[in-house]
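chain below, 281 aa
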Amino acid sequence: MFSRISGLVAAVAIAATIGFSPVHAQEAKPAEAASAAVETAAPAAADAAAPAAAPAKEHLDNPYGLQAMLAHGDMVSKGVLALLLIMSMGSWYILITKLWDTHKLAKEAKDVRATFFKKATLADGVKGLSEGSAFRYIAGSAIEASEHHEGALTENIDRSTWVTMSIDRSVSDVQGRVQTGLGFLATVGSTSPFIGLFGTVWGILQALTAIGVAGQASIDKVAGPVGEALIMTAIGLAVAVPAVLGYNWLVNRNKSVMTQVRNFAGDLHGVLMGNRQVTKR
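prediction:
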């Protein structure tokens, strides 16, 4: 539970950083331009008038950035931005929590490999596993299937096949839990650039419509709306890239940990069948 909460907090922080970083990047340019203008005008003012205190620098708000788009944008542009923010938060939450889950599973696999099969009995080995552990779930299911192989419907299935089927089902359940959220990452990685592009197209369309109604096509009429629209494309790419990289990273980690889980399941099956042979003797 702690890892889920910490992952959610980290996801919100990262998504907010990605969403509002274009504002700072674009606000820097007007500030630099204003600073350069003041420095250029200072010598002329000194030559034309008596020495006086340097004028205070005025803070100029960026009229072409994300804040302007939020202030003057319509519901479509704001909806696209909100959707991208939600997708980014979900992606980072899944990435952080799943990395923690695979790290925990890999650590459990290392501990199981070192201690489980050295116990005197399988019951002692299961007791040594932590509650909620994937390996305890597999071992418990396999032992239960080995001890309860009765009934008219299952009597035609030999015990080895019955235990194998139970272990395979348990491993599939573990794999399903490990892969939870990968579909969301794949969806975000493949759709967020197009969602951002839709916001860009919509913004440019609204800009051209406003220019056509006003009958003016000066640079100040074009630069603002078009700049605001292009921010959507940048945000869409900023959401997509971590989702794609996180998806590929998690797929590789899942393959590694599931290989260890399957190795444990195979060894457990061999031990159970060996115990059965000893019991028959």
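Helices lie at 2-48, 66-72, 75-115, 122-127, 134-147, 159-178, 182-214, 219-280. Residues 22-60, 277-281 have pLDDT under 50 and may be disordered.
thats it, cya
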